[in-house]
Amino acid sequence: MKSVSSKILLVSAVTFMSLSALALKDDTNQPINIVSDNQSLDMSNRVVTFTDNVVITQGSIVVKANKVIITRPEENSKKKDTVEAFGNPVTFHQMMDDGKPVDGKANKVFYDLATEFLTLTGNAELKQLDSKINGNVITYDVKKQQLKANGSSGSRVKTVLIPSQLNDAKGKK
């Protein structure tokens, strides 16, 4: 359980690195705390579900959701865990090493540890200071460090970049 939460938080942090500098290096070494109003464990299906006011913290990372489902595969299946978070919206916050906060949100967040692929669906947004990306779906391939944003039939992807903030990020690398 701790390993799964650690990996999703690490992947969330990596996702937001594409917008700026490195996240606080110490975050991934901090204890992971998960609190919720309810928790259930289905041992036969290897599923842990946290519901109602779910808050996951690790260092400066804070994830809030209405529901989080962590599914673990059979021991020798060579598959890896999946994590789904649902909310109105699911929110993410982290401080970066450069002191700037990064925030993200979506109605659903899905992370497959096997493929290291993160998907933010429904009113998805990634934001750092005044720069942000909005779309119906934002995906991040951790291995390839590639981010994609897609609109829906009724909306387009919107990106706002603040030149002075981009220049500050370049100067600190």
TrEMBL record:
It comes from the Bacteria. Residues 33-145 form the Organic solvent tolerance-like N-terminal domain. The keyword Transport applies. InterPro entries: LPS_export_LptA (IPR052037), LptA (IPR014340), OstA-like_N (IPR005653). Residues 1-23 form the signal peptide. It is found in: Periplasm. Keywords: Periplasm, Signal, Transport. Its main location: periplasm. Involved in the assembly of lipopolysaccharide (LPS). Required for the translocation of LPS from the inner membrane to the outer membrane. May form a bridge between the inner membrane and the outer membrane, via interactions with LptC and LptD, thereby facilitating LPS transfer across the periplasm. Belongs to the LptA family. NCBIfam families: outer_YhbN_LptA. Component of the lipopolysaccharide transport and assembly complex. This is Lipopolysaccharide export system protein LptA. It comes from Aggregatibacter aphrophilus. The gene is lptA.
